[in-house]
């Protein structure tokens, strides 16, 4: 049977040895009289002690190729920067010039309102950018699950 | 290649063994010299820095994403961001720490986008239903799967994949990278209490996933 003083979150922190001394002493005293927390802690230990530490093999040759690729891209990015800006400015000037010459008095085009399906897709794309919203969604789902 | 000697400065070099032990050898002064060379446009110095720091960055990215190809993209992006912004790098932390933090944040963002993309484009009704992307996926093992070739590791990988990105990151940083909670909090810009809560939720969910309901977590 659970006591009223059970703090499940502390069990995980205790397992990792990260409870401060007073909280640790308090929890250890609690564990002596709470079989539910003792069982819970034993389950956490079984799980976490048995989880494999993921060893990632990185061959020296792979690391060398990776470093060369990253350095190559960094250099390319830097050498591209000025010509790209120069090209973009030139292209913009040409486009503006054509517009001014061919349609000196043209009014801005009024675009029709997007269809409902377009709005839906747009909102989904906006959702992709809004990562905080996803975080909230996860929290809501967890609350829904626990509540 | 790490098998040869890597030129780091004008007057000295490091062996491959030294490179593997970057944290011990790469003191502040050495880092300062390298940074100066990179700022002056020395591409070889940047490549040397990448060689020295990539093992830790790649290992972290693989652990966070569970996928070697994605991990390489993330680590590469972190190095490129460092290179692009090197002139504004003030050195308040070491380059290694900066990269570690950037890789972690990029990996969390990547996992969130992947999760959201699947929800939107595959219209999954809930998290437990099979992911169509996995159903139609090539059954041949990916490079990451080849690394995680035991059944236990595959099960852990699948269970980690079901965790929300931040929970997964906190768990990986504590359990696999063995970082103290305080450091994880600093790394992710969270309160320590929030990190504890994420870690607890992650362990509860992993317990549920990995014990197949045989051992009910309270």
Could you give the topology of this structure?
The complex is a heterodimer of chains A (147) and B (218).
Chain A lengths: L7 H8 L5 H13 L1 H16 L9 H43 L13 H14 L1 H16 L1
Helix pairs in contact in A: 1-3
Chain B lengths: L5 E2 L5 E2 L1 H5 L1 H4 L2 H12 L3 H23 L2 H17 L10 H28 L9 H4 L7 H5 L3 H11 L3 H12 L4 H8 L3 H19 L8
Antiparallel strand pairs in B: 1-2
Helix pairs in contact in B: 3-4, 4-5, 4-6, 5-6, 9-12, 10-12, 11-12
How would you describe this protein?
The complex is a heterodimer of chains A (147) and B (218). Chain A is elongated, with a radius of gyration of 30 Å. Chain A has six helices and no strands. Chain A has 147 residues and is mainly α. Chain B has 218 residues and is mainly alpha-helical. In chain B, a hairpin with a 5-residue loop joins β1 and β2 (13-14). A two-stranded antiparallel sheet of chain B has the order 1-2. Chain B starts with 5 loop residues before the first strand and ends in an 8-residue tail after the last helix. Chain B has helices at residues 16-20, 22-25, 28-39, 43-65, 68-84, 95-122, 132-135, 143-147, 151-161, 165-176, 181-188, 192-210, and strands spanning 6-7, 13-14. In chain B, α5 packs across α6, α10 packs across α12 (192-210) and α11 (181-188) crosses α12 (192-210).
């Amino acid at each position: 049977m659970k006591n009223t003083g059970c703090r499940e979150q502390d069990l995980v922190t205790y397992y990792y040895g990260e409870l401060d001394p007073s909280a640790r002493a308090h929890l250890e005293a609690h564990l002596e009289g709470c079989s539910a927390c003792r069982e819970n802690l034993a389950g956490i230990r079984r799980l976490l002690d048995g989880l494999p530490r993921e060893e990632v093999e990185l061959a020296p040759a792979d690391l060398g190729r990776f470093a060369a690729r990253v350095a190559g891209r960094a250099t390319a990015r830097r050498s591209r920067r000025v010509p790209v800006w120069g090209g973009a400015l030139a292209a913009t000037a040409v486009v503006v010039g054509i517009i001014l010459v061919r349609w000196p008095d043209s009014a801005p085009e009024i675009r029709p309102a997007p269809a409902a399906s377009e709005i839906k897709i747009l909102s989904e794309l906006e959702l992709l950018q809004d990562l905080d919203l996803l975080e909230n969604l996860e929290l809501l789902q967890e609350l829904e699950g626990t509540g | 290649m790490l098998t040869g000697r890597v030129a780091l400065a004008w007057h000295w070099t490091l062996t491959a063994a030294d490179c593997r032990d970057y944290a011990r050898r790469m003191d502040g002064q050495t880092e300062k010299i390298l940074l100066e060379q990179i700022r002056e446009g020395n591409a070889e110095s940047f490549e040397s820095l990448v060689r020295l720091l990539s093992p830790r960055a790649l290992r972290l990215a693989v652990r966070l994403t569970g996928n070697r190809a994605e991990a390489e993209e993330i680590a590469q992006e972190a190095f490129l961001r460092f290179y692009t912004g090197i002139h504004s790098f003030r050195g308040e932390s070491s380059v290694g720490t900066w990269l570690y933090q950037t890789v972690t944040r990029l990996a969390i963002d990547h996992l969130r986008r992947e999760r959201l993309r699947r929800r939107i484009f595959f219209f999954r009704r809930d998290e437990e239903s099979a992911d169509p992307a996995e159903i139609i996926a090539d059954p041949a093992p990916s490079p990451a799967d080849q690394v995680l070739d035991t059944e236990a590791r595959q099960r852990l990988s699948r269970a980690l994949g079901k965790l929300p990105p931040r929970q997964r990151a906190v768990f990986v940083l504590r359990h696999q990278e063995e970082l103290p909670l305080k450091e994880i909090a600093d790394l992710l810009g969270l309160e320590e209490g929030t990190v504890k809560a994420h870690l607890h939720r992650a362990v509860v969910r992993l317990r549920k996933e990995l014990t197949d309901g045989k051992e009910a977590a309270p």
